[in-house]
Design goal:
6-stranded parallel β-sheet, disordered C terminus, binds 2'-O-acetyl adenosine-5-diphosphoribose, histone H4K16 deacetylase activity, NAD-dependent, SIR2/SIRT2 'Small Domain', about 15% strand, metal ion binding, transferase, Rossmann fold, metal-binding, alpha/beta
Length: about 300
C-alpha cells in the first residue's frame, strides 16, 4: 500500500473524524493493557510467560492440537488473561463514543476479553474475530455454557468437564487403562485427554474464525470510510490482512505504543493509547464517558 498524497497532517485526521460516518476500528490487546491484562508479544506479554510449559512456540497455548492432546497446558495459564468484571479503558470508551455519534461501522476486535460489551458497544457493531471467553463449549459434544460457569475452574487451574460427557469419559479412560496394562493401547485406540473438556469459545490456531467475521468483512471493507487500527501488532492473519484489503483511497490511521512494520499507515500516533485518544478527543472537543477520563486528561 502507498500512502495517500493528501492525507498526512493532523488537520486531515481531525477533518476525517468529524466527517466520517463509517469508521472501521481494528483493535488488539493494546487497548486493554492499562487494566493489567497483558498483551501477547511485548517483552512482558503473555507469550513471555510460557517458558515453563516447554512448548516449541509459546503461541501453542492456543493450538487446537495441543489442547486436544493436553488441555492442562491451556488450563494452567488461562487465569492470566481472564477478563476483569465491568472494567473498560478510555480506548473502549472512545469506540463507544464513535458508536454514539453514529460513526462506527464496526469494531473488529482480536481481543477475547469481551470488554467492548462492558462499555456498551452493541453486538451489531462488534465482530470478535478470535471469539471470546463469553461462552465455552464441550470439546466433544459441543454443549455450550456461559463463560463464567468455567471461570472458577480456570482461576483454580483445574479442568472443567462437560456434565453430559463425564460418564462416557470415565468408561473410555477405564478401557484405555485396561488396554495399557495389557500393553495394547497403540494398536487399539488412544484416549484423548480433551474428551468431554470444556473449552472457552476462543478461536485457537487450527480453527476457522467465527462465521460472523467472514459474513461481515467482505462488505465492510467496501463500505468503510476510515480505518483506525489501535493496539495491535498485526501479526496474526487473516485479521492482519484487513489493512491490505481496503480500497486504496481509504485513510488508514495507527494508534499504537510501538511502530509496526506490517503496513503503511497515513498517520501514526505512537504512544500509550489511552493518552493518545484522550488528547485527540480534547482536540476535537469530544467527551468520552469514562470515570478515569478526567484523571488522564488532566495528567
Ligand atoms: P500483540 O501482543 O501482538 O500486540 C499488541 C500491540 O499493542 C503491540 O504492538 C504493543 O505495542 C501495543 N500496545 C501495548 N500496550 C499498549 C498501550 N497501552 N497503548 C497502545 N498500544 C499498546 O497483540 P495482538 O495484536 O492483539 O490470539 O495479537 C493478536 C492475536 O495474537 C491475539 O488475538 C491472540 C494472539 O495469538 C488469541 O487470543 C487467539
Amino acid at each position: 500500500r502507498t500512502r495517500l498524497p493528501n492525507f498526512y497532517k493532523l488537520e486531515h485526521l481531525y477533518d476525517a473524524l468529524e466527517k466520517s460516518k463509517k469508521i472501521l476500528v481494528l483493535t488488539g490487546a493494546g487497548i486493554s493493557t492499562s487494566l493489567g491484562i497483558p498483551d501477547f508479544r511485548s517483552s512482558q506479554g503473555f507469550y513471555s510467560k510460557m517458558a515453563h510449559l516447554g512448548l516449541d512456540d509459546p503461541q501453542d497455548v492456543f493450538s487446537l492440537d495441543v489442547f486436544r492432546r493436553n488441555p492442562n497446558v491451556f488450563y494452567s495459564i488461562a487465569h492470566m488473561i481472564l477478563p476483569p468484571d465491568a472494567a473498560f479503558t478510555p480506548l473502549h470508551g472512545f469506540i463507544k463514543l464513535l458508536q454514539d455519534k453514529g460513526k462506527l461501522l464496526r469494531n473488529y476486535t482480536q481481543n477475547i476479553d469481551n470488554l467492548e460489551g462492558n462499555v456498551g458497544v452493541t453486538p451489531d457493531h462488534l465482530v470478535q474475530c478470535h471469539g471470546s471467553f463469553a461462552t465455552a463449549s464441550c470439546f466433544t459434544c459441543k454443549y455450550k455454557v456461559h463463560g463464567d460457569v468455567i471461570f472458577p475452574h480456570l482461576r483454580r487451574q483445574q479442568i472443567a468437564y462437560c456434565p453430559f460427557c463425564t460418564a462416557e469419559r470415565r468408561i473410555k479412560r477405564q478401557q484405555f487403562e485396561k488396554l495399557e496394562d495389557e500393553g495394547a493401547t497403540s494398536r487399539k485406540f488412544e484416549f484423548i485427554d480433551s474428551y468431554g473438556v470444556m473449552k472457552p469459545d476462543i478461536t485457537f490456531f487450527g480453527e476457522d474464525l467465527p462465521d460472523r467475521y467472514h459474513n461481515f468483512i467482505k462488505r465492510d471493507i467496501l463500505e468503510c470510510d476510515l480505518l483506525l487500527c489501535i493496539g495491535t501488532s498485526l501479526k496474526v492473519a487473516p485479521v492482519s490482512e484487513i489493512v491490505n484489503l481496503l480500497p486504496e483511497h481509504i485513510p488508514q490511521i495507527l494508534i499504537n505504543r510501538d511502530p509496526i512494520e506490517h503496513s503503511e499507515f497515513d498517520i501514526e500516533l505512537l504512544g500509550y493509547g489511552d493518552e493518545v485518544i484522550t488528547w485527540l478527543c480534547k482536540k476535537l472537543g469530544w467527551e468520552i464517558d469514562h470515570k478515569d477520563f478526567e484523571k488522564i486528561a488532566n495528567s
